[in-house]
Write a structure and sequence with these properties.
four-stranded mixed beta sheet, 19% helix, globular, alpha+beta
Length: 94
């Protein structure tokens, strides 16, 4: 039996319980976005999701956080030309 805590879109916490047959059929696969299917239950004023399925959802990479810079982009070209001329982003001489 596994227990997990997730955060939703709004940053609120979500507790889930994964019984052994579900945990072996739908294993947790590390950090990421997950779609949880199941039944919401309430016990002693606390809500949990009794998971019936757990799917890891593919994420689309955000180009702002990549390690490589696309040299063909206009922004890169403009900023590199400005640096070559000794001009910073506020258009004052460096």
């Amino acid at each position: 039996m596994n227990f997990a805590t997730f955060t939703d879109y709004n940053g609120d916490f979500l507790d889930s319980v994964h019984f052994p047959n579900i945990a072996s059929q739908f294993p947790f696969r590390g950090k990421g976005l997950y779609k949880i299917q199941g039944r919401v239950s309430e016990e002693f004023g606390f809500y949990t999701v009794e998971a019936s399925a757990l799917y890891k959802v593919a994420m689309v990479p955000d180009p702002r956080y990549t390690d490589t810079i696309s040299r063909s982009s206009d922004n890169y070209s403009k900023s590199s030309q400005s640096m070559k001329r000794g001009i910073n982003q506020t258009n004052t001489a460096v």
